[in-house]
Structures are given as structure tokens and as C-alpha cells.
Please model this.
Amino acid sequence: MIAVSLLEVKQLNLSLRTHTGLAHILKDVSLRVEAGERVALVGETGCGKSLTLKAILGLLEGKGLVVSGKVLFEGEEILGTPRILRLRGVQIGFIPQDPAASLNPTFSIADQLLAVVRRVRRNLPKEKAWALIKEALVEVAVPDPDRVLASYPFQLSGGLCQRVLIATALVNRPKLVLADEPGTALDVTVQAQTLRAMRHLTEKSGSSVILVTHNLGVVREFADRVYVMYAGTIVEHGPVKSVFQTPRHPYTRALLDSVPRLTGGGLPQGLDGHIPDYTSPPKGCRFRPRCAFARPECAEEQPLRQVAEGHEVACVLYAEVPRG
Ligand SMILES: Nc1ncnc2c1ncn2[C@@H]1O[C@H](COP(=O)(O)OP(=O)(O)OP(=O)(O)O)[C@@H](O)[C@H]1O
Ligand SMILES: [Mg+2]
Model:
């Protein structure tokens, strides 16, 4: 029998109608997540990380969107199918980027959490359901869970709303959690606490995770593999150790160089320029206009090529580690 990945995204292309024309944002995005695996998705703001997660979750339907490709969950297509509606919140949990806009202002936290629990355990007695949602809040370090359960979202801080959303995504022990920067509204100590809780919970229930984050330290600590995205394309991916120790793509190198180091060495290197206009992106490698190593052949499509075990890069320099 051929082993099937838990999630497989194949050649996902996504364009959005905007007032300036069709924006070709995601281009041939392919990624996979195995059972129990923690995968990070990184890249600068606007590169398409949230859109990738939303496309997987079927949250972009009917939004002036042109989409092609495949999204397979346990080997079955979910892109543009009703199956995603049954999976979302049950087998696939989602921690959205914007906590304030993601909770319903008209229902208490308890009602919102109970509704999620009832999707899986319809006939669970009230006291048991209550104990379960309370425990879900304790697991993500919510102090005074009874008060939080009785509250409405507007009565809670951004950080508490975010922890409620993390609890909501995990309470049904989904097979896959898509986490879009779960911690941006939290201070660093609470951020570390919730990441630890997420790691503990996913380990306990064997869930897989796609974690979107700007924090490369978190990637190093949390993830098994990492995908590096630039302007809607995957430019490099592989085991975290391999990609961080030997980054091959000039963009990955720039991203890693932009992290301040405790050991000194001056200010981090920034990257000049900005991501391209998606209505007319550069042909071939989209990083070409900002790349110090660009050559004429970069105007052609660059396929992902294997450079080490499970480590692939879409760059003409794949055979060398660029210096400079
Ligand atoms: N509904 C929309 N209509 C038009 N353009 C959109 C829409 N949603 C996203 N975009 C554009 O698509 C691109 C990718 O957006 P996305 O939100 O996926 O980026 P991101 O990588 O998650 O960035 P960040 O790190 O800031 O969250 C951006 O240029 C954004 O402006
Ligand atoms: Mg985003």
C-alpha cells in the first residue's frame, strides 16, 4: 500500500480579482504534512501565507477568486468540495491571524466553545461538556476560566481572545491544526507558554500542525520541517536543521540574516526592495529583481531541485551555497 500524506497541496494557483486587475498571488504552491508532523511556513508579510491556509480551509470560496490545483486530506480532494465543511473545526482546526475579528461578538465564550464541542459529541451531558471546555482553557493557560467562559469577546483582552481561539481549535483534538501566527497578540512569556501548550497538546493527541510565524526562533524550537515562501511561491523547503544550517536560496539566506543575534556582529542585514506587484509578477523566479545573484536564466521557471535529504530549492544556484 502507498503511504498517503495527511495533507497534500499540489500545484495550488490562486488569483484574486482586484480593482487594478487579476492578482496572481499563489503560484504552484505544493506542500505536504505527514501525520504527527509539525511544519512551519515562513516568509515576509504579503507573501501569501494566510491565503494558503485559507485556501486549504475552503475559506475563500466565492470571493472573486480563480483557483486551480489540488488539496488532498488523507488522500481525498477537499478543494472546492463540501467535505471541507465537515472537516473544518472537527478534523482540521484553525487558529486565525486576527483574534478580535474571529470570535462572534453576540455569544459568550462558553456558548462558542460548546457549539464546537457539540459538533463531535452531540449528546455529551451538560456538566461533562462544561468540564471539557473549562479544561480546554486551562490547557492554554487561561487564568480564571469560569470568568472567561461567562464573558463575551469584547470583555476580554486580545491575548485572552487569542488563547480562547487556540483552545477552540484544539478542543476536538483535530488531526491537523493550521495556526496563523498564534501569539502575535500575546506578550512574549505568554506566547512561549501557549506555544508550549500547543506542542504538548499536539504531541498528546498526535496532531499535525502547519505553523505560520515570523519568528524563526519559534520555527527552530517547534517545527520538524519548514517551507520558505516568497511572493506566492515556495522557494525552499526541508528539515529545519538542514534549511537553517545550509540555506541555499538567496531569499532564505536574507531571511535568516535579518534575525538579530545575541552574540553581536552589528545590526542584522535587511533586504532592499519589496515583493512584486501581483498583477504583473516577474517571469521565472519572482525573487529575481531583488536578488544579488540573478542571472539571465532566472527569467525561466525554476523547479524545486533536491539538494539534500528532503531539502529542495528553486534556484539556479541550487548546486552551490551562495556567498556574499
Ligand atoms: N481579499 C483580498 N483581496 C485582494 N488581495 C488580497 C486579499 N487577501 C490578501 N490579498 C493580498 O494577497 C497577498 C498575500 O496576502 P496574505 O494575507 O496571504 O499574506 P501573508 O503572507 O499572510 O502576510 P502577513 O505576514 O502580513 O500576514 C497580499 O499582497 C495581500 O495584499
Ligand atoms: Mg497572514
About this structure: Residues 49-50, 97, 180 surround magnesium ion (ligand 2) (CB under 6 Å). The radius of gyration is 20 Å. The CA atoms of residues 209 and 318 lie 28 Å apart.
